[in-house]
Amino acid sequence: MIKFDETTNGFLLSGKNFSYAAYVNGEGCLQNLYFGKKIELEDLGYLISRGGNRASDADKIPFEYGGYGRGDYREPTIVAERKDGAAMSGFCYVSHKICDGVPEVQGLPHARSGGQTLSVTLKDYFSDILVILNYTVWEDSDVIVRNAEIVNTGKEPVTLKKAFSFCADLPEREYSVLRLYGSWAKERYPEVTKLGRGVTRIQSLRGASSHQMNPFMGILCESCTENEGECYGVQLIYSGSFAITAEVNYNGTLRLQGGINDLNFGWKLCGGERLITPQAALCFSCEGLGGMSRAYADFLRERIINPNFVYGRRPIVVNNWEATYFDFDDEKLFSLIDEAAALGIDTFVLDDGWFGKRNDDKSSLGDWFVNTDKLKGGLKPVIERCKKNGLKFGLWFEPEMISEDSDLYRAHPDWAVKKEGVEPVRGRNQLVLDLTRGEVVEYVFNAVSEILTEYEISYVKWDFNRTLTEFYSARLPADRQGEFAHRYVLGFYDLAERLTAKFPNVFFEGCAGGGGRFDAGALYYFAQIWTSDDTDGLERTKIQWGTATCYPVSGMSCHVSACPNHQTQRITPFETRGAIASLGATGYELDLTKLTEEEKQNVKEQIKAYRQIDDLVLKGDLYRLSNPFESNYFCEMLVAKDKARAYVVGERFRGDPCDYDRILKLYGLDENKTYRITELNLTASGKALLNAGVLFPRLPDCGSWIWHIEEAK
Ligand code: DGJ
C-alpha cells in the first residue's frame, strides 16, 4: 500500500481506487507528484524531473507543506514566529518511516485502526522547527488521512501563528468548489461555484464547527456530476474554529490546505514541545460526488465512529422536546411513555428542563440535579414507568454551558468564559464554561457521571446551544490567549472521551441547537447527531441530502414531528415525515397522546417497516437519485453492499402540470441482476432500471413514496 523507491526518492500511497504520490526533489524538498486514480510509481517516473527550491521557482512547486517568506507567495501552511520576530520558513526532507496502523493523535479524535502510515520528517532551514507529516491509507478506502506534528527542537519558545494540518498542491485544471453552508434549521446546504484565481476560504470562527459552514470542502474537476467525473474532498476531523482554503495560483495550480483556524490563533511552543494538528480526511473519487459521499460514509463508519455502536441497531426514540418544551410534569411524561410503549417505540428521551430550577432557558445550566418542583418524585418514577413499559430511558444534558442564574455560577462565576470589564455576549441567555481549565472539565465530568451512575440511563443527548465569544481564559497567560479556541475544543474532547469511556454502554447522541456541530470529530464520540431542529418533511430532504455529501445516513438523527411544523408552519402528510425520517436514525418528537388513531397506526407501521430496512441505513451504500435543490423531486436509495436489496424513498414537492413522464434512473443497482420492485409490482433487469429508469410517481404536494427492491431469483 505504501511504497518508497530509493532511486527516485518517491513515495506512493494507494487506497482502494486512488494513489497519492510525492517525492523528495533534487534540492531536498518534499513535493507532490500525483493524487488521482490508482496508478503505479514506476509509471510516474517521467514526471520526477520537475523541482527546485530557489525563490524564483518556489511559488510553482507543489509542496507537501508550504513555507513562508521565501518566495512561495501562496498562503503558507505554517507561520512560526521566533523570539527575534523572524518567521520565514522552508522545509527539507530529513527522514521517513512506514509503519502499520495509525499514528497516535493524543487528545484529538482520529482514525481508529488498521491501515499503514507514512511519516516524513521535515526540517525548517532557518529554525529549530521540525514538521512530521503523517499520511495514513487503507486498502479498502478511498480516503487518505493527513496531519502534521510540529516540534520545537530548540531551547527558545516559538509562537505558531498558523499551523495547518496539511497542504496538497494539485495541477492546473478547471475546478469548482463545493461547500456546505447554512444556518440554524437550514444546515449543510450545498453550494457549488467556479474556482477562480486567488484564495477561496471557508471557515468557522465560532469555537465550534458551526451551522454556518461545515468543515468540509469538495473540489469538482471539470464536468463532475453526482454520478460521474473526478472530485476531491477535504474533511477535517475537528469540531472547533477551522479554515479550509483553496488557492488557485497565477499558473492555474491549486493549493488545498486546512486545519485549526489561524485567525486569533497563537500557540506557544516551548523547547521540546510538540503541537499535534487535527487529522484531515482527503478523498478522491472518480465516480462523481456520489462516489465521494459513499467513500466518506464508509470511512467514517469503519474508522471514526465508535465501533461498539456504529453498526448496532439504533434505539427508536420519542423525545419530549417538541411535545412539551419546558412545560411538563410527572403525569405528562407518564402519559407519553405509556403511549410510546403502545406504539412500539423503544426509548423515551427526556429533553431540556428536568434539572435545577429550569422552567425556561434563563436558568440552571450547570446544576445537574433533578428539578423536584417539576418532577415531584424525581427521575426514579419516570425511569420505573419506562421499565414497566419495556422502554429504555434517555436524558438530555448541555454539559459545556452555565447559566448565570445557577448555583454553579454563584459558586464559581470565574468558570464562565468571559473577560473582566467586558460585558459578555449571551447566547440563549447562557454562558459557556471555560473548558480550557482542568478543574472545570473535572466538575462537569463528575456531575454528569453521578447522574449516569445513579440512574439507569441508556442514552444521552449532549446539546450545545450557543457558540463562543470573548475567547479568553483568566487562567491563561497573555502570551497564550491565542491558544484558547483550540484548548476549548481539547477540553470538550477530554470530557467526551472520559464520559464515553466511563459509560461504554450508554449511547451518546450529539446535538448543537440542531446540527451546529455535525462533524467527524463529534461523530467520533457520538454515533449519531441531531441533524437539525428543522424536521419539516420538505426542508429535511434538503438538509439530509446536503449532510449526506460527506456523512453516513446512520450518523443523522431524524425525527417525525407534529404538523403544522414548529419551524416552518408547513403541513406535510404523516407518511412523508416518516418516509424521510427513515433515511437515518429514525425517531419521534411530538405529543403522542394527541395523535389520531390513524396516525397511531401509522407510527406502528413505520416502526415495523423501519426494522425491516435498518440494516441498509446502518451498512448500505447511499445513492442520491434526485436532487431536491434542483428539481421538484427528492429521491435517495440505500443499496445493500452485495446489491441484492435496495430501499428507495422519494418525495414530490409541488403539483406541476408539466411535470410528467420524468425518468428516475436507479443508479447503484447491479446491471447483471434482475430486480423486483414490490410496490410497483415490477420485475426488470438492473441494466434497464439503471439506464432506462422508471417513471417518477405523480403525487400531491409533499407526497412521498417508498419502494422495496429485491433481487428476483
Ligand atoms: C436544541 C436542540 O436542538 C433541541 O432538540 C432541544 O434539545 C433544545 N435544544 C433544548 O433546549
Give an overview in words.
The chain is of the alpha+beta class and about 725 residues long. Among the domains are: about 1-305, alpha-galactosidase from lactobacil brevis (Beta-galactosidase, Chain A, domain 5, Distorted Sandwich), CATH 2.70.98.60; about 625-710, Sandwich (Immunoglobulin-like), CATH 2.60.40. It is built from 13 helices and 39 strands. Strands 6, 7, 8, 9, 12, 13, 15, 16, 20 and 21 form a ten-stranded antiparallel β-sheet that branches. An eight-stranded parallel barrel has the order 22-23-24-27-28-29-30-31, surrounded by four helices. A six-stranded antiparallel β-sheet has the order 32-33-34-39-36-37. A hairpin with a 5-residue loop joins strand 3 (about 20-25) and strand 4 (about 30-35). Helix 7 (about 440-455) runs parallel beside helix 8. It is globular. The chain starts with a strand and ends with a strand.
Uncertain regions spanning at least 5 consecutive residues = none
CATH architecture term of the domain at 2-304: Distorted Sandwich
- Structure summary, number of beta strands: 39
The proportion of residues forming helix, as a percent range, comes to 10-25%
Q: What CATH first level of the domain at 2-304 would be assigned?
A: Mainly Beta
Largest β-sheet summary: 10 strands, antiparallel
Gyration radius (Cα, Å) is 26 Å
Ions, cofactors and other bound molecules: (2R,3S,4R,5S)-2-(hydroxymethyl)piperidine-3,4,5-triol
Shape: globular
User: Strand fraction band?
Assistant: 25-35%
